[in-house]
């Protein structure tokens, strides 16, 4: 008899796979089913360590009949599935509207029909960006002001969730988290791209001058906060998840180079991202105070070192993806 039957959408991607691993490890009384269409960003290999414990259904989150059937067998849904890379959204926004907006609509209709608890996973990018020198950070009451095709589709999805809560009484919570790092992150993203560039004899690539600030959180901390919200959060509420990890890209770049035994100047400046958000910063005090949550990985350098070790030890996971990703970046001058 299971304490909870959980449906995880996007569970073969970076954060979803780490969420599934942690759930299997720490909550053996939870039955986990994963719905994932295994896009370029999802991988069966990411779930190999838990293959015996988890059911993986290969399917699209916009497939209403499939989603309805899976939701009808679940007590709760954690919705990670999304198109997630800002540079890809700039090149072709169509899949972002499809998965992020229509996919979330499809999940909402299914949880409404079957009266199932939903946690919707979102991003701090929905709030737009902040000036560099400002003391202010994003809070739950910051107005939505997304900049990119990616963040605007995530914002649209969040607003659908809020409307389904208010109009239909759907039992949902939302979380908006800052930039994650850790194992199983696709090599298109900033930190794994630089680590694997160094490991394959390429020079790391910094957009523009590297003054842009991101608020880094270890993926296991994001996921422990999602679990806390799922079990103890107030229905209808939005929670911001962050771990006070603000750093500019140049600093992160130099830290990676130093930890990997290279000169801190051994990188290239490349074409900046169009519309590049300057700074994200989360004020996590509501989550700390209301739910008593705290991050476990408070030493960024230590987390980064462990992440570098993981990429060094797992070239079989990322190696087959690397050349194609770099060819796409080269085509964009990045
Ligand atoms: P990811 O790109 O690594 O993984 C996304 C997963 O969704 C993949 O497994 C992919 O196959 C799956 N997917 C995509 N389209 C699908 C579809 N139509 N049907 C079914 N599955 C589909 O992304 P991630 O970094 O793990 O992000 C997960 C969630 O967390 C997203 O909702 C993202 O917006 C949010 N988020 C990410 C970060 C971050 O720093 N990575 C920060 C805050 C919030
Ligand atoms: O090669 C690079 N060089 C570089 O300087 C890459 C890939 C990125 N960058 C910069 C752009 C950003 O300022 O590094 C920063 C981080 O870039 P990404 O890893 O692409 O992340 P970001 O655009 O900040 O978005 C991420 O965090 C929020 C995730 O991809 C989103 O899914 C999440 O919602």
Please outline what is shown here.
The protein has 11 helices and 13 strands. The chain is an alpha/beta fold and 334 residues long. It has a domain at 4-187 and 218-245 and 278-298: NAD(P)-binding Rossmann-like Domain (Rossmann fold, 3-Layer(aba) Sandwich).
List its salient traits:
334 residues, alpha/beta, Rossmann fold, seven-stranded parallel beta sheet, two-stranded parallel sheet, 13 strands, 43% helix, 16% strand, binds nicotinamide-adenine-dinucleotide, binds thymidine-5'-diphospho-beta-D-xylose, lyase, dTDP-glucose 4,6-dehydratase activity, dTDP-glucose 4,6-dehydratase, dTDP_Gluc_deHydtase, NAD(P)-bd_dom
Describe it for me?
Helix content is 43%, strand content 16%. It is an alpha/beta fold and 334 residues long. It has a domain at 4-187 and 218-245 and 278-298: 3-Layer(aba) Sandwich (Rossmann fold). The strands form four sheets. The protein has a seven-stranded parallel beta sheet, with helices on both faces. A two-stranded parallel ribbon has the order 7-10. A two-stranded parallel ribbon has the order 8-13. The radius of gyration is 19 Å and the shape is globular. The N and C termini lie far apart (52 Å). Bound molecules: nicotinamide-adenine-dinucleotide (NAD) and thymidine-5'-diphospho-beta-D-xylose. The site of nicotinamide-adenine-dinucleotide (NAD) has 30 residues, from helix 1, helix 4 and strand 5. Thymidine-5'-diphospho-beta-D-xylose (TDX) binds at residues 84-86, 123, 125, 179, 189-190, 193, 205-207, 212, 214, 249, 273. This is dTDP-glucose 4,6-dehydratase. Belongs to the NAD(P)-dependent epimerase/dehydratase family. dTDP-glucose dehydratase subfamily. It is an enzyme of class 4 (lyase).
């Amino acid at each position: 008899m299971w304490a909870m039957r959980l449906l995880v959408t996007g569970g073969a991607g970076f954060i979803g796979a780490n969420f599934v691993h942690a759930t299997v490890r720490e909550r053996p009384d939870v039955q986990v089913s994963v719905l994932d269409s295994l896009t370029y960003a999802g991988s069966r290999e990411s779930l190999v360590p838990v293959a015996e414990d988890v059911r993986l259904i290969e399917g699209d989150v916009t497939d209403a009949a499939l989603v309805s059937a899976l939701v009808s067998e679940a007590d709760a849904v954690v919705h990670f599935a999304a198109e997630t890379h800002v540079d890809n959204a700039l090149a072709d926004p169509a899949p972002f509207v499809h998965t992020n907006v229509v996919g979330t609509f499809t999940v909402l209709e299914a949880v409404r029909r079957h009266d199932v608890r939903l946690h919707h996973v979102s991003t701090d990018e929905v709030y737009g960006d902040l000036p560099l020198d400002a003391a202010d950070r994003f809070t739950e009451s910051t107005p939505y002001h997304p900049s990119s095709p990616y963040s605007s589709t995530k914002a649209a999805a969040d607003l659908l969730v809020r409307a389904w809560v208010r109009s239909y009484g759907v039992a949902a919570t939302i979380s908006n988290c800052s930039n994650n790092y850790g194992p199983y992150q696709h090599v298109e993203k900033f930190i794994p791209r630089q680590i694997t560039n160094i490991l394959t004899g390429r020079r790391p690539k910094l957009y523009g001058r590297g003054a842009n600030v991101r608020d880094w959180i270890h993926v296991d901390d994001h996921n422990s906060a999602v679990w806390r919200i799922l079990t103890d959060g107030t229905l209808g509420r939005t929670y911001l998840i962050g771990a006070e990890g603000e750093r500019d890209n140049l600093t992160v770049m130099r830290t990676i180079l130093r930890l990997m035994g290279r000169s801190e100047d051994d990188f290239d400046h490349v074409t900046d991202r169009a519309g590049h958000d300057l700074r994200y910063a989360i004020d996590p005090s509501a989550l700390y105070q209301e739910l008593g949550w705290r991050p476990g990985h408070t030493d960024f350098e230590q987390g980064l070192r462990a992440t570098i070790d993981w990429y060094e030890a797992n070239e079989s996971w990322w190696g087959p993806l690397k050349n194609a990703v770099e060819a796409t970046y080269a085509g964009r001058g990045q």
